[in-house]
Amino acid sequence: MSRPVSNPATAANGRSSSLMQTAWIATRDTLQARWSALAARERTGLTAAAVLIGAFLLWSVAIQPAWRTLREAPSRIDQQGTQLQVLRRMAAEATELRAIAPISSAQSSAALQGATARLAGRATLQLQGDRATVSFNGLSGDEFRDWLAEVRSAARARATEVQLTRGAQGYAGTLVLSLGGSR
User: What is the Cα–Cα distance from 96 to 93, expressed in whole angstroms?
Assistant: First the structure.
């Protein structure tokens, strides 16, 4: 008769599993013996401490994060709603700008020269093909914003490089624009 050969790895796992169970049972028995040896007052104190630690852990891991999320949710929803409105407005503006027919470089240059001439000598314009460089000195924020809006809509120009500083008399610096004839 032949005897079935057992797998040594399975036998080792079985032994280590039974050793772990034996160790666990021995540890449990030791702890039960120590618990029984404690006075009733000490057992009550340890039980109260364990309940307090458990309650603290429950609060800090489960309840407090959920509570904070519920408290902050309305303001986050409002903030994200505002961001969504801004993004929708920008998307609508981009759609409108794409729908506008392109203008020639000559028309773009003329519109840019007209807008810059209205700044009464506080800006100089240099045209270089499909790019324009505008140097500013002493523009208020409102004047700069209005000029930039006019250049964006009338000349179809886009700012590609900006170097501005804000001083006591207003903004000063240079702005490089890509003209509307070249999308």
Answer: 5
- The one-letter amino acid code at 11 reads A
Q: Per this entry, what is the length of the chain?
A: 183
Q: What is the pLDDT of residue 44?
A: 94
**180/183 Cα distance (integer angstroms):** 6
For 90, the token pair is: 């920008």
Tokens standing for residue 74:
């309305």
* 155 secondary structure, DSSP code: S
- What single-letter amino acid sits at 118? R
**What is residue 88's three-state secondary structure?**
helix
Q: For the segment 139-183, what is each residue's pLDDT rounded down to a tens digit?
A: 888 988 898 888 888 888 888 999 999 988 888 999 999 886 544
Q: What is the pTM of this model?
A: 0.48
d(CA 108, CA 151): 9
Q: In whole angstroms, what is the distance from residue 28 CA to residue 38 CA?
A: 16
Residue 115's alpha-carbon distances to 33, 89, 150, 183, in angstroms, are 93, 26, 7, 20
What does the alpha-carbon distance between residue 9 and residue 36 come to, in Å, rounded to a whole number? 40
